[in-house]
Amino acid sequence: MERATELKHDDQHLMDILAIAEHRDQAALVRLFDHYAPKVRAFCLAKQPGANLMADDIAQEVMIRIWNKAHTYKKESASLNTWVFTLARNARIDYLRKNSRHQSDIDPEYLWQNVVDENADPFKDAQQQRDQERIREGLDKLPADQKQVLAKVYLEGKTHKEAAEELSLPLGTIKSRVRLALHKLTIYIKR
């Protein structure tokens, strides 16, 4: 059942990218944003835990690139996931180059070591590459309600709205818990 739902969503995402390419369909972009923005954020945070502003900026840049480059997507060449995470990787590299004080601060080997494999699931790869020990320690120190919300939003890739519905909590409560948890986690990780 879960696999059928996943295939249905994949088909919807393919239809959305075509709708953007052919008709500049804003509703399709919103659906793709709701699906991919949390995953792109998680991808960025896996590379640099605590870099929330960077992750937000890159997620927005990826959505702009999807809007502008939807017509270049070819499903014969790569899955939509692979294409989106290639955009994310490139946007992250561009962001780091643009916001680096010195070009030498960026290790090119680090930037290119994570080239997206067409057959890999980029979201799972990003999760596996996290500094698992440090994050796990930080998560263990969070209150249970904050830890639960972070797991829904960042590990399961749910939107704030989906997490609120699943946990039967107001959207504002979810957003507050995420903000507080990320703040505490950032402080812990930076120690």
Going by CATH, the architecture of the largest domain would be Orthogonal Bundle
What percent of the residues sit in helical stretches (DSSP H or I)? over 70%
- How far the N terminus sits from the C terminus, by CA atoms, comes to 44 Å
Number of strands: 0
Order of helices and strands: HHHHHHHHHH
Question: Can you give a write-up of this model?
Answer:
It is a single chain. The chain has 191 residues and is an all-alpha fold. The protein folds into two domains: 1-126, RNA polymerase sigma factor, region 2, helix turn helix motif (Rna Polymerase Sigma Factor, Chain: A); 131-191, Orthogonal Bundle (Arc Repressor Mutant, subunit A), CATH 1.10.10.10. Helix content is 75%, strand content 0%. The protein contains ten helices and no strands. It has helices at 2-23, 26-47, 52-69, 80-99, 108-112, 122-128, 132-140, 144-155, 160-167, 171-190. It is globular. Residues 102-112 have low confidence and may be disordered.
Secondary structure elements and pairings:
Layout: H1 2-23, H2 26-47, H3 52-69, H4 80-99, H5 108-112, H6 122-128, H7 132-140, H8 144-155, H9 160-167, H10 171-190
Helix pairs in contact: 1-2, 2-3, 2-4, 2-6, 3-4, 7-10, 8-10, 9-10
What's a concise summary of this model?
With 191 residues, this protein is mostly helical. Helices cover 75% and strands 0% of the residues. It has helices at residues 2-23, 26-47, 52-69, 80-99, 108-112, 122-128, 132-140, 144-155, 160-167, 171-190.
Index terms:
191 residues; mainly alpha; Rna Polymerase Sigma Factor, Chain: A; Arc Repressor Mutant, subunit A; globular
